[in-house]
Amino acid sequence: MGKAIIGVCAVILVAMVVAVAADAIHSRSGRSEGEMEASKKAVKTICQPTHYKEECEKSLAGSNTTDPKELIKVGIQAAIREIEKVVSNFDTIQDGTTDLRSRQALDDCKEQMGYSINNLKKSLNQLSSSDVSRLDVYVENLRIWLGGSITFQQTCLYGFENVSTEAREKMKKLLNTSQMLTSNGLNMVSAIPELNRDLKFPGLTRARGDTRKLLAKDGFCSTPN
Ligand SMILES: *[C@@H]1O[C@H](CO)[C@@H](O)[C@H](O)[C@H]1NC(C)=O
Ligand SMILES: *[C@@H]1O[C@H](CO)[C@@H](O)[C@H](O)[C@H]1NC(C)=O
Ligand SMILES: *[C@@H]1O[C@H](CO)[C@@H](O)[C@H](O)[C@H]1NC(C)=O
């Protein structure tokens, strides 16, 4: 029970941290301008632990939210769209390929990409779920699915190992963005506990006490929904 409450609080805290940062900016500038500023700041914060920051910020640039869970979802949706785009390109590659082994590798790859997307969709479901009784299990599931998604994309590339260097390089280029976006997703979900534990983000240290008080006052921690 205690652990369950801590888990729920943790996730709410993560959301609160960014929301508090948003409020700080809000009071300084105009309302909708402030909202966009807040969203930009939240994007920077959530992209901080990613390996491909530029790609991360680009993929979240159109978002208008400070909720980290929503932002991570936007990032994962971008990865799904990218893989779907890649797969739709397979047919044009395949049409021009007469080499049997290349065709086989492409077929296998298509299958791997399907699995890769499935894993991403599972993590989207998990992020949408309000049932966060244990934060460690919650994050671990996300890590497993996102890690699996990366593995499937690598398996696709591996399938071209002995086919032809040219085909492999082509695939590598094609899968470059989706691999970066998926890797970023994994980095973001992995940082959820840290984000919650340290609260060491610029401008957030001051808000720490306030956030806790607010949570206690609103009864967030004792009545998880
Ligand atoms: C961002 O969202 C807020 C609140 O949901 C809304 O008031 C605002 O108009 C939105 N801004 C843009 C640029 O979409
Ligand atoms: C490529 O060839 C090497 C050496 O023959 C072999 O060990 C490896 O398993 C092959 N890779 C694939 C993906 O078939
Ligand atoms: C994608 O390409 C960029 C630029 O060449 C490179 O820095 C990056 O490591 C590549 N990412 C992956 C996952 O291969």
Notes on the structure:
It is a single chain. The protein is mostly helical and 225 residues long. The chain has one domain: Butyryl-CoA Dehydrogenase, subunit A, domain 3, CATH 1.20.140. Helix content is 78%, strand content 0%. It contains 10 helices and no strands. It has helices at 2-26, 31-47, 53-60, 68-95, 100-128, 135-158, 165-174, 176-190, 192-198, 207-218. Helix 1 packs across helix 2, helix 4 (68-95) runs antiparallel to helix 5 and helix 4 (68-95) packs antiparallel against helix 8. The longest helix is centred in the middle third of the chain and has 29 residues, at 100-128. The chain is elongated, with a radius of gyration of 20 Å. The two termini are 14 Å apart. Residues 198-225 have low confidence and may be disordered. Keywords: Signal. InterPro entries: Invertase/methylesterase_inhib (IPR035513), Pectinesterase_inhib_dom (IPR006501).
Summarize the structure.
By secondary structure, this protein is mainly alpha-helical.
- At the fold tier of CATH, the topology name is Butyryl-CoA Dehydrogenase, subunit A, domain 3
Q: What is the name of the CATH architecture?
A: Up-down Bundle
Report the C-alpha radius of gyration, rounded: 20 Å
Q: Which stretches of 5+ consecutive residues score pLDDT under 50?
A: 198-225
Bound molecules: 2-acetamido-2-deoxy-beta-D-glucopyranose
Strand content: under 5%
Helix percentage? over 70%
Strand runs, count: 0
CATH classification, class level? Mainly Alpha
What is the total number of structural domains?
1
Keywords: Signal
Signal peptide: 1-22
Pfam family, one: PMEI
Protein name: Pectinesterase inhibitor domain-containing protein
